Amino acid sequence: MKKKLVTEMGRMGREEFRASSKLPLTVVLDNVRSLHNVGSVFRTSDAFRVERILLCGITATPPAAEIHKTALGAEDVVPWQHFADTMEAVALLKSEGYDVYSIEQCEGSIALQEFSTLPGRRYAVIMGNEVKGVQQQVVDASDGAIEIPQFGTKHSLNVSVTAGMVIWEFAKKLGWV
């Protein structure tokens, strides 16, 4: 089995990416501290053609060397906006007709594998701070919470790992893969 060369993978260029159809999913980062996590979310969002990323609160914005180190240029093609407060982003998403879900361990949360999407709907998922998670007021303003079941001794996953799992699951549920 021979590994493919980058030139053999048929990747689209920046302009083709910008003009392409997008997964009807917006990713919201609620006060994410690590610029490397932000960059990783950009790179995963590029891989699955996520509509956009909303960077909120203390979440850093491009250009930044630490973001670029893990994003590898994805920060230049995935659309993004910054909001001083995550609640502003949630209000915008709701006004645009998105179904908004916090990715959080909550009473009444839906297990990621049990969550169902509806045809023609657009979704937003909110990933929280590495220590505190998604702010309670943001959870309260969400349409629901989605939880990734965990079976070990820890009660959380790295935010960039969580984003990868959630984006992949939405891509499958929305018929992209």
Largest sheet: 7 strands, parallel
Helix content percent band: 25-40%
What count of helical segments does DSSP give? Answer: 6
Low-confidence segments, given as residue ranges, are none
- Strand residues, percent: 15-25%
Strand order of the largest sheet: 3-2-1-6-4-7-5
Q: What's the overall geometry?
A: globular
Summed over residues and divided by their number, the pLDDT gives a mean of 97
Number of strands: 7
Order of SSEs: HEHEHEHEEEHEH
What is the first-to-last residue Cα distance? 23 Å
Task: Provide the structure class.
Answer: alpha/beta
What integer value in Å does the Rg equal? 16 Å
Could you give a quick summary of the protein structure above?
This protein is of the alpha/beta class and 177 residues long. The protein has six helices and seven strands, in the order αβαβαβαβββαβα.
